[in-house]
TrEMBL record:
<dbReference type="GO" id="GO:0000976">
    <property type="term" value="F:transcription cis-regulatory region binding"/>
</dbReference>
<dbReference type="InterPro" id="IPR036271">
    <property type="entry name" value="Tet_transcr_reg_TetR-rel_C_sf"/>
</dbReference>
<dbReference type="Pfam" id="PF00440">
    <property type="entry name" value="TetR_N"/>
</dbReference>
<feature type="domain" description="HTH tetR-type">
    <location>
        <begin position="15"/>
        <end position="75"/>
    </location>
</feature>
<protein>
    <submittedName>
        <fullName>TetR family transcriptional regulator</fullName>
    </submittedName>
</protein>
<keyword id="KW-0805">Transcription regulation</keyword>
<dbReference type="InterPro" id="IPR009057">
    <property type="entry name" value="Homeodomain-like_sf"/>
</dbReference>
<dbReference type="InterPro" id="IPR001647">
    <property type="entry name" value="HTH_TetR"/>
</dbReference>
<dbReference type="InterPro" id="IPR050109">
    <property type="entry name" value="HTH-type_TetR-like_transc_reg"/>
</dbReference>
<keyword id="KW-0804">Transcription</keyword>
<keyword id="KW-0238">DNA-binding</keyword>
<dbReference type="GO" id="GO:0003700">
    <property type="term" value="F:DNA-binding transcription factor activity"/>
</dbReference>
<feature type="DNA-binding region" description="H-T-H motif">
    <location>
        <begin position="38"/>
        <end position="57"/>
    </location>
</feature>
Length: 202
């Protein structure tokens, strides 16, 4: 083991060097975004030689995709827990879900904006298997469970309802990214949820 690699491992707190590199990239993304983030910058911050990254990742894109996913997970953890099916009211719970989704998308927007010129990183990110544990997956499971519990109509098209709520979040992000004329005020969370429930409530 090289002295530099050994020195880096002293700061990994029991994590593998691969995990240390991902965590370092996540920290840099949180501090300065993804625009202009280089292998050299990550290596320097991690305390390793540039080439060490390629012992653990096929390329820069793989490292950044994994770091981007870890960054999203960190933001999700900061936003707290989502309501459990069968508790409270469906309307109040969906408001929480939508507010969570909007906050999530606003928080991760800078990281994704910096990668618009690197579509390969975004493609790799999309290929990572999250086992449906992201917000969208949780929202779909929430609605399916509420339907199974009888708190939504038996024939409720819950996947379509979830897509509508996710779409509101995406529209918010795209409105911030793309030039447009005039100003379009985002609909209130209450109004969106009421419109969705018009189609799936009992």
């Amino acid at each position: 083991m090289s002295p530099r690699k050994a020195a880096a491992l002293k700061h990994t707190d029991g994590r593998s060097l691969r995990e240390h590199l991902i965590d370092t990239a996540v920290r840099l993304i949180a501090e300065q975004g993804t625009a202009g983030l280089t292998v050299r910058a990550i290596a320097r911050a991690a305390g390793v030689a540039d080439g060490v990254l390629y012992n653990h990742f096929a390329d820069k894109e793989e490292l950044l995709a994994n770091a981007l996913r870890a960054h999203v997970r960190a933001v999700e953890a900061e936003l707290g827990e989502l309501p459990e099916p069968g508790t409270g009211t469906v309307e109040a719970n969906l408001r929480e879900h939508l507010a969570y989704g909007l906050a999530l998308h606003r928080a991760i927007l800078p990281a994704f904006t910096g990668l618009l010129a690197q579509p390969e990183v975004l493609a790799r990110f999309g290929e990572l298997d999250g086992h449906g544990d992201d917000w969208r997956g949780q929202l779909r499971r929430y609605l399916r469970t509420e339907r199974a519990l009888g708190r939504l109509a038996a024939g409720a098209r819950v996947d379509a309802a979830a897509a509508m709520l996710v779409g509101i979040c995406h529209e918010t992000v795209l409105s911030a990214l793309l030039p447009h004329t005039g100003t379009t005020k985002a609909p209130a969370v209450r109004d969106v949820v009421e419109a969705v429930l018009d189609g799936i409530a009992k």
